[in-house]
Design brief:
Length: 749
């Protein structure tokens, strides 16, 4: 028996962050089973639209649904929660509570704080068919009465149990039913008995009777879930038309935060592209499986679920082995979020539980098909956008490494996806669209927004409102007050404060006025800078269009050939394809009384590697094995967390290392690209390291180590010098500790 919970949306959540928003997500718990939704950033009325399934073993349990606010550096904040007894859902009509708004309760029951509301759909699964026991006698009839209650979760086992139970055992069960004070409690025990004694029931069938014979003798009744029977008999086009008739005019979902994998226009109508990509009769998925090396592809039929609200199907396949992981089985659930005849949105959730940490996450892909721009030829075109994200069901220290690995794998897979799709459907290029200079410039224009609206958004805060109020208050006071007599050091035209209170009030007014003037100055400066950026972008665009127009076909071909040759040379050299040219400075240099082979054990993922990293303040260290990328070139992935003494933010590090021999074969070169997570401005830069370990000519058992480091800035910031200085200083201290451990371990060997 499974409990289906659909978390739809929430409204009027309280602001938990200083910016006036929250980053809410929902955590669900039934017994020991936990699940959670995605995090919606900076929103007080979030929409999730996610569905969860829980196995019910005891009807006395409670479903606990909590809404929390994600905090990057501290514990997540509690927003509110609700508790729903499972028995309440079981006793409801059709075993469903329907779609209902539930008020969130604060942690303290005495508190009267408004925590907002959450929209949920909670019901028991109606996917299994009921069974009629074919035993003779009144006891079989009494057990048949309990079928509606107990066998909803165990219908697939009922064909065996109905025939294999002896009359004596049936009498015992009937007498227990009479003695039971609550039919619900007895039903719960029967459900537990079916769940726990599955293997016993399968092997205690009647003597000399095979299971296949039992299945023939017993005849299951027709399921009450007619929507699935109807959907299984309907064609894909009919099911989609049913979805279109139920469409409520909702907007197309926004792209998932992980990034866009494919964004392309195709010369095909949206409905035809939808059929090509998702129809069971289409050969596209089978061709894609052949290209990607996927085997044992099985596509389930499209079916309506949850009373006809969702159109869903399940695909299973075995993904081909890669450099880092072996071949694994994947399960992909595809659900239509929108279908109105012009636009389609399908959410695919891929789970691979057999990979390492596979039970902690799911990969979600969003396919959005919308009408494209009007073509000069009059043909219709479609705009296909595929975005992705990682949905972590449980907290894991390997989050950064999992995301990086998934990002690269999806990038490669959807390059093949795009190539195969372009072979079946013609892509739309700029010539087909017929864009001219004016149309290109028009696409660069932002949505019009009035200056008054921007002013209201920027100045609608406490500082400005309080300053205006204080100013009006003072002006009214000046109009109502009588002129004071000249006293003290005052003279005509100079009115000084007559008390400490007046002096403090004057100081507050001056400070408030200064803050408002600074805000006005920054607003005007930002507006002026925005105008300059738009002018610069327009200038660059016009120059690019003019240059492209002035090039001859021979010049265009020559440019493409030069880019291809440069890319080929880069691949043959074995260096990082995405490694930027940054200024590298030497941060460590030392001659060690250690052979080169022993020193390179620092990069082999063994005991020396782990011990040195832990001594240097890097905890939870893990790495993948070296994989060959080219001749004499190997690569691996690394993950660890900083100790508090290294970084007070205790950030995470994911890095990619590449190892290759030196040109003269007397040592090794290790290049590393390091990405930091969970530290301030972590998305502004990454680190590039180069380790050079070579033999000493004078010593047979010595080596010389040199380490170079550079900071690749992805965004501009005024703190670049200070950040680079802190990074290099911390790195130098870590390198001294690491290579000190190498010397000590070699001496103690």
């Amino acid at each position: 028996m499974k409990l289906q919970v659909r978390v739809i949306e929430a409204r009027n959540l309280p602001a938990m962050d200083l910016n006036g928003f929250s980053d809410p997500y929902v955590r669900l718990q039934l017994g020991k089973n936990r699940s959670r939704t995605k995090v919606v950033k900076k929103c007080l009325n979030p929409t999730w639209g996610e569905e969860f399934s829980f196995r019910v073993e005891d009807l006395n349990e409670e479903l606990v649904i909590s809404v929390l606010d994600e905090d990057k550096y501290f514990n997540d904040d509690f927003v509110g929660q609700i508790k729903i007894p499972v028995s309440q859902v079981f006793d409801a009509e059709n075993k469903s509570l329907g779609t209902v708004w539930y008020p969130l309760q604060p942690k303290n029951k005495k508190s009267k704080k408004d925590c907002g509301e959450i929209l949920l759909n909670i019901s028991f699964s109606q996917n299994n068919s009921f069974v009629d026991f074919s035993c003779n006698g009144d006891h079989a009839q009494s057990m048949g009465k309990l079928a509606d209650v107990t066998l909803e979760s165990s219908a697939r086992f009922s064909n065996v149990t109905s025939t294999c139970l002896s009359p004596v055992r049936q009498e015992d069960s009937y007498s227990r039913e009479e003695r039971s004070c609550s039919q619900k409690t007895f039903a719960g025990r029967i459900v537990q008995m079916f769940n726990k004694n599955l293997d016993t029931l399968a092997t205690t069938s009647a003597k000399g009777i095979e299971t296949s014979e039992l299945l023939e003798d017993t005849k299951p009744e027709v399921s009450d879930d007619r929507s699935e029977d109807q959907s299984s008999s309907c064609s894909f086009e009919e099911l989609v038309k049913t979805m279109e008739s139920k469409d409520s005019g909702s907007e197309i979902p926004s792209n998932l935060p992980g990034g866009v994998l494919l964004d392309q226009l195709y010369m095909i109508t949206p409905s035809e592209l939808n059929v090509l990509l998702f129809s069971p009769d289409s050969s596209f998925y089978a061709s894609l499986a052949d290209v990607q090396g996927t085997s044992e592809l099985q596509m389930g039929p499209w079916k309506f679920e949850n009373g006809g609200e969702n159109l869903k199907r399940v695909l299973t396949y075995i993904k081909a082995a890669t450099r880092l992981i072996k071949a694994v089985k994947g399960t992909e659930e595809q659900v239509y979020l929108k279908a109105d005849g012009k636009a389609y949105a399908v959410l695919a959730s891929v789970s691979t539980p057999d990979v390492m940490y596979g039970s902690t996450f799911k990969t979600e892909l969003l396919y959005c098909i919308t009408p494209g721009p009007e073509l000069p030829s009059g043909e219709q075109c479609s705009h296909l956008v595929i975005s992705w994200r990682m949905n972590f069901l449980q907290s894991t220290m390997m989050k950064g490494m999992i995301e990086n690995g998934a990002r690269q794998g999806l990038k490669d897979s959807y390059e093949q996806y795009a190539n195969l799709l372009s072979q079946n459907v013609k892509k739309v290029d700029s010539k087909d669209i017929g864009l001219n200079k004016d149309q290109v410039l028009a696409t660069l224009q932002a949505q019009p927004q009035s200056d008054w609206k921007l002013i209201a958004q920027y100045f609608a805060n406490f500082t400005v409102v309080s300053t205006v109020f204080m100013g009006i208050y003072v002006l009214v006071h000046i109009l109502l007050a009588l002129p004071s007599t000249i006293q003290g050091l005052e003279f005509l035209g100079l009115d000084l404060p007559d008390s400490i209170g007046e002096f403090i009030v004057c100081g507050v007014l001056v400070l408030q006025a200064e803050r408002v003037l600074m805000m006005i100055s920054r607003f005007l400066q930002a507006r002026r800078q925005k105008v300059q950026e738009i002018c610069y972008l327009l200038k660059r665009t016009i120059m690019a269009l003019w240059k492209a127009r002035s090039l001859t076909p021979e010049q265009k071909v020559r440019i493409v050939e030069e880019e291809s040759e440069a890319k080929l040379q880069t691949e043959e050299s074995g260096s990082f394809l995405d490694l930027e040219d940054v200024s590298m400075s030497e941060v460590y240099s030392s001659s060690l009384p250690v052979p080169t082979s022993f020193c390179m054990e620092l990069f082999n993922g063994g005991d020396l590697d782990r011990k040195a990293m832990e001594r240097a303040g890097c905890h939870n260290y893990s790495c993948s094995p070296w994989e060959s990328e080219n001749s004499d070139v190997y690569g691996r992935q690394i993950y660890y967390r900083f100790d508090k003494r290294i970084s007070r933010y205790r950030g995470e590090v994911t890095s990619t290392q590449q190892r290759s021999p030196l040109p003269d074969k007397n040592g090794w070169l290790v290049e590393e690209v390091m990405t930091l997570h969970g530290v301030p401005l972590d998305d502004y830069f990454n680190l590039q390291l180069r380790y050079q370990v070579e033999d000493l000519p004078s010593r047979s058992k010595g080596c010389h180590v040199r380490v170079f480091c550079g900071v690749a800035w992805l965004k501009s910031t005024k703190h670049q010098k200070r950040i680079a200085k802190n990074i290099l200083s911390s790195l130098q201290d870590r390198l001294k500790v690491v290579f000190g451990v190498v010397e000590k371990e070699f001496a103690n060997r």
